[in-house]
Amino acid sequence: MKNDLLSGRAVKSIVLFALPIMGSSLLQYSYGLVDNIIVGRYVGTNALAAVGNVGSINSFIIGTALGLTSGFTIPVAQRFGAMDKEKMNKYAANSISLSLLIGILIAVVSHLLSTPLLKLIHTPDDIMELSSSYINILYYSVPIQMALNNFNALARAVGESKKPLYFLIISVCVNLALDFLFVGYFRWGVVGAALATAASQLTAATLAGLYIFRYNEEYRFIKSDLKISTKISWQQLKLGIPLSLQFTITAVGSMILQTAVNGFGSNVIAGFTAAGRVEQVLNIPMSGLGVGNMTFVSQNYGAGNYDRIIKSVRKIFLLDIAVSVVCSIVLVTAGPFVVTLFMTDYNADIMNAARHYLTAIAQCYSLVAVLFVIRNTLQGLGFTYANMIAGAGEFFGRIAVALLFTPMIGFSAICYAGPAAWLLADIPLIVIYLVKKKNFKHLIKER
């Protein structure tokens, strides 16, 4: 049953809608987490470092692709809220065709750039070949990932957040089985891990596509809808490009930061990678609430429920801050134990780097809660340029740490790169939201 986000208690509706999104995010992160754990235990520290080393480059390419699809579906949710089913179907169908076309183009460009990018971030020689093998296989699945993200976003745009979770559960089971088969049994190393991830994503994309085209009651496409419209594509690109640039700018900052991390050797890279995976998992509750609020805001914006938007944002903001405090405690207490799952034998250098990083993040975790709520709210309203501004803030935060403070302070500076980036992103987002909030209040009074 779909969630009704246009009536009833706002926070309850958002939380119920967000819970499956959190489950889906957890399963999506598990692709990388499972790969890291199995590669670390069955192949070794160098393989784990290689998989972690490509994380920033992968975020650069995949983030660019997925940012576009996130923007393409904003008008779908807004038209759903306005009860304009004809335009909603046209926007939805165009997003499918446009995502597939752009996904193929990005996959081609990615293969041309992968080796130069690995050299650009000063990948150590002992993991260069492993890193290249892993990331180039993943790039073949870029169109698949774009299709999967687009289908899931279309389902959520009309209030359905459970079906994407079910598809991902099946996909993760496929990934886990193939990881053990390809890496553990056939001993294909990082290549096996990448193949398992690609196959599992294809499974999820196929199921999600069947649901959108055949079983979702809201969408009724005709053949002509799937023909790419120049006018609609331009409208969707104007929303998607700022989101894509946000991911791109942030990822470039992460790549530069990864360059600084690589200077500390494979053990620190492995510790930084493992701790980063733990942090990503703990981001999920806050991120899920933000994404749930984004869909809520999109639908209610289309329906003209401005007062409902203002009240929900305030309450979700407070809830996300409370969640961030709980997540900070878990990072410090349980995080180091999870890091040990990535190793066959205890390594003091890896553990020291991981503990240092987790402690620094936990001290400033509320900053990322603010980022998730305000950024997704503005995205739901269609003000995606704010995401690009926030991405620039994150970029300069990471650049400052990597180029200025790391040479003076060392690895401690790298650990606080994330909080610095969040702070510089939060400031402009808060200012923009307060301006939009004031405008909404004027519209409410006029009514």
How would you portray this structure in words?
This protein is mainly α. Helices cover 86% and strands 0% of the residues. The protein is built from 17 helices and no strands. Helix 5 runs antiparallel to helix 7, helix 5 runs parallel beside helix 10 (230-262) and helix 15 packs antiparallel against helix 17 (417-446). The model has no long low-confidence stretch (mean pLDDT 86).
Write the layout of secondary structure elements.
Blueprint: H1 10-42, H2 45-53, H3 55-72, H4 74-81, H5 85-120, H6 125-139, H7 142-157, H8 162-185, H9 189-215, H10 230-262, H11 266-303, H12 306-340, H13 348-363, H14 366-381, H15 385-409, H16 411-415, H17 417-446
Distance between the termini: 33 Å
Q: Could you describe the largest sheet, including whether it forms a barrel?
A: none
Strand content: under 5%
Radius of gyration, in Å, reads 21 Å
Label the overall shape.
globular
Q: Outline of this structure?
A:
The protein is 86% helix and 0% strand.
